[in-house]
Amino acid sequence: MSQILVMATLKLNDEKLLEDWKTLSKKITEDLTGQDGFIWRESGRDENGLIYCILRWESKEKQEKFMSALMARTDDEHTVIMTEFSRVVNMQSMTKEIVEVF
């Protein structure tokens, strides 16, 4: 099994939400820390306002297992985070690429 990088891009619903995104991004990283197969996550923004999130996982299988479990969650904390995510992020702008690490 090879490690992978998940590279996601997104736009904010409004540039005034950048500080909200930073808070939410920190919470996402905290939630990922300790998950089986998760290694690290970095996030940044270019001069056009496009946000990049890069996550490193031990394998594609572990990343997919995490995503399946995440999508199946129905607890209150998850609902709050997803509501906040939708408020801050333009969901239609999101892209995701997965690449194998050599």
Descriptive notes:
40% of the residues lie in helices and 35% in strands. Helix 1 (18-32) runs antiparallel to helix 3 (76-88). The chain is built from three helices and four strands. It has one domain: Alpha-Beta Plaits (2-Layer Sandwich). The chain has 102 residues and is an alpha+beta fold. It has a four-stranded antiparallel sheet. The termini are close together.
Question: Main sheet?
Answer: 4 strands, antiparallel
* Class based on secondary structure composition and strand pairing: alpha+beta
Number of strands: 4
Order of helices and strands: EHEEHHE
SS field, number of helical segments: 3
What's the overall geometry?
A: globular
CATH arch. level architecture: 2-Layer Sandwich
- Overall domain count: 1
Q: How would you describe the oligomerization state of the chains in this entry?
A: single chain
Spatial extent as radius of gyration: 14 Å
What is the terminal separation in angstroms? 11 Å
Strand coverage percent? 35-45%
CATH topology: Alpha-Beta Plaits
Chain-averaged pLDDT = 95
CATH class category label: Alpha Beta
Show unreliable segments: none
Strand order of the largest sheet: 2-3-1-4
**What share of the residues lie within helices?**
40-55%
Task: Please provide a brief summary of the model.
With 102 residues, this protein is an alpha+beta fold. It is built from 3 helices and 4 strands, in the order βαββααβ.
Key words describing this protein structure:
102 residues, alpha+beta, Alpha-Beta Plaits, four-stranded antiparallel beta sheet
